[in-house]
Amino acid sequence: MKYMKSFPSILRTQYAIALLSENDSTKAESYKDEFERIAKTYPHKGDVEADRELMAHALETYHRKKS
C-alpha cells in the first residue's frame, strides 16, 4: 500500500481532501506539485488528464466554498 502514495489518483485524492476537507491550500499545492512531477513519467496519460480535470473541479469547488 505504501508504494501507492505516488500514484496520480492517490495524489489527486489527497489534493482534494486538503482543499475541501482541511481548507489547507498550502498542503494541497504540495500534493499538486508532487502530482505534476509524477505525471511527467506516468505511462497512462489519459488517467493523468482525467485526474487533472478532477483536480480543477476540486479547486473550483474550493473557491466557491470560500466565497
How does this structure look, described?
This protein is mainly α. It has one domain (2-66). The protein has three helices and no strands. Helix 1 (8-20) runs antiparallel to helix 2 and helix 1 packs parallel to helix 3 (45-66). The radius of gyration is 12 Å and the shape is globular. The termini are far apart. The model has no long low-confidence stretch (mean pLDDT 96).
Discrete helix count: 3
Shape: globular
Order of helices and strands: HHH
Number of strands: 0
How far apart the termini lie comes to 37 Å
- Provide the domain count: 1
Provide keyphrases for this structure:
67 residues, mainly alpha, globular
Blueprint of the fold:
Elements: H1 8-20, H2 25-39, H3 45-66
In brief, what are we looking at here?
The chain is 75% helix and 0% strand. It is an all-alpha fold.
